[in-house]
Protein: Signal peptidase I
Organism: Enterococcus florum
Amino acid sequence: MIYLCTFMLLGIGLHIYQVIYPEFMVDGDSMYPTFINEEQIKVKAHHQPKRWDVVVFQPPEESEETTYLKRIIGVPGDHIRYKDDQLYLNNIAVDDPFSENTDNFDIRRLLGIKKIPEGYYFVLGDNRGISKDSRLFGLVPEDNIIGIVAEGKDSYEENTGSD
C-alpha cells in the first residue's frame, strides 16, 4: 500500500511539474540560429521577463493552442527604434546580435505609441527577415507569456539533464 501511495504521489508530482514547466517543439525558422526547427525546448522559469529573455507565449488575438517563441526586445517604459541594422532603446544605441537585416522602424510609427506600457512586451524573432512578431501583431500582454526558455542548441538537455 505504501508503494502504491508513493507511486501515485510521484505521478501527481510529475504531472504538476509538466504543467508548470511544459515542453514545446520549435516550429519554423524564425528563431534561427538560436533554435532550430523541430528542436525540443522546455520552459525553465516564470519570473517577470527581462530584455533578451526568450519566451513562449500565446500571440494576441490567436487561439489558445497557438504558441510562439520569440525574444523580448522591449520592456515596459521603452521606446524602440531600428535604423540601419542598429537597435536604439530610449534613443541609446544598444548591441543586438540579431539586428542585421532588421527593417527600419520606430515603435511610434509602427504601433502608434511613444513607450511600451506596463504589462506589455515587444518581441522579435532572431531571424528577423522571416519572423512574425510584434512588428505584425503588436505588443504581447504579460498574461500571455507562458514562460521563459533556456537558449542554445542544447537547451533541452540543459533543462532536463538528458543526453
Residues 24-160 form a domain with the Umud Fragment, subunit A fold (CATH 2.10.109.10). The CA atoms of residues 119 and 135 lie 18 Å apart. The radius of gyration is 18 Å. The chain is about 20% helix and 30% strand.
